[in-house]
């Protein structure tokens, strides 16, 4: 855990549509573009080793959403073709103040961490979670979305791990992912997740893939 006082005022940002990182969540990334290889190398040289994940607000990426989540590089592997397979562990959400001009090939932003103090605290609980009802809805959503998972692990997972992992992995639209990111509490995130799954069921759609 990084103390609040040690969080930097400027972070490198990685705009990636549909990619959601949440505090204490883990996001695997495949880094291969030269600008992001440079970003990775520079981040490793810092004590915090942070990369700010953020979603574009428009298709061309010229405008970004106001809120993202910083992740700490916690593991990486270099491939034979000079790519990096890295893992980010979510630290805290942030609010973009402004982008910073400079000589780096990647984008950087001045950020504020105010308002996201709970991200640096203890694992959250969701007192309103009815696990049986939630897992029943999830099973119906997975069936429509043609998704598979380890149900034993899901049933045993703590509230935060269950809700945040599903928020990160389910194939929702980027704007829906942003709504999950901006949820002020775990309970609100679970309510948003339920709404998105119910909407997908009503539309008879979901996505394709496998959740590990």
TrEMBL record:
Question: PROSITE patterns annotated for this entry?
Answer: LON_N
Family matches, as InterPro entries: Lon_prtase_N, Lon_prtase_N_sf, PUA-like_sf
SMART domains named among the record's database cross-references? LON
Q: Give a Pfam family name.
A: LON_substr_bdg
A GO biological process this protein is involved in? Answer: proteolysis
Residue intervals of the Lon N-terminal domain: 11-201
Instruction: Report the GO molecular function annotations.
Output: peptidase activity
What keywords would UniProt list here? Hydrolase, Protease
State the protein's name. ATP-dependent protease
Organism from which the protein derives: Maritimibacter harenae
Q: What is the lineage of its organism?
A: Bacteria, Pseudomonadati, Pseudomonadota, Alphaproteobacteria, Rhodobacterales
